[in-house]
Amino acid sequence: MAAALGSVRLRRYGQVGAVLLVVGAVGFAVSRGSARGEQFSSLWLSLLVGGLLSMLYAPWVRWRARRRSGRYAVEGGYDITDDNIMMRSGSESGGIAWDGVDQVRVTPEFWIVYVGRMPATVIPRGLMSAEDAETLRAFMAARGLLQER
Questions:
Q1: Which residues pair with 122 in a beta bridge?
Q2: Which entry of 4, 15, 52, 131 is 20 to 30 Å from 138 by CA?
């Protein structure tokens, strides 16, 4: 869930890293052709390394999240009706009434359900049959909840 919710924030690291990488590469290439270029080469190399590390930050966070979350997996499931979403996980359960849901954002793997401005739960589409996923998508679309990213 954290990877799905944090993907927007993590994408910024990749964008900033790409900018730093390009600026560092251009600066390094230009400095190699000038007489005083050697004085600034460490600056351009620092930008290159910083950009590369920034671009690698998001994949590293996702890898660590997948590695950690494997230990927390428990049996559970969802009971989704016209009135609410009931989630069961281990010995705990909880629910969200559809009337309280303000929006549902679509990601490649999940539907992220928002109550107010806060994400309340995710519904993994990979655990559903294609027919059930389409039925739920049509239900949410009819209620005006779906928000494409």
A1: 112
A2: 4
* Per-residue pLDDT tens over the stretch 111-141: 888 998 888 888 888 888 889 889 989 999 9
Q: What strands lie across the sheet with 110-115, from one edge to the other?
A: 118-124, 110-115, 103-106, 146-148
Mean pLDDT calculated for residue range 46-69: 85
pLDDT at 57 over 80: yes
Q: pTM, whole model, 2 decimals?
A: 0.52
Q: Helix/strand/coil (H, E, C) string of the chain?
A: CHHHHHHHHHHHHHHHHHHHHHHHHHHHHHHHCCCCHHHHHHHHHHHHHHHHHHHHHHHHHHHHHHHHHCCCCCCEEEEECCCEEEEEECCEEEEEEHHHCCEEEECCCEEEEEECCEEEEEEEHHHCCHHHHHHHHHHHHHCCCEEEC
Sheet containing 92-97: order of strands: 76-80, 84-89, 92-97
Please state, in angstroms and rounded to a whole number, the distance separating the CA atoms of residues 42 and 48: 10
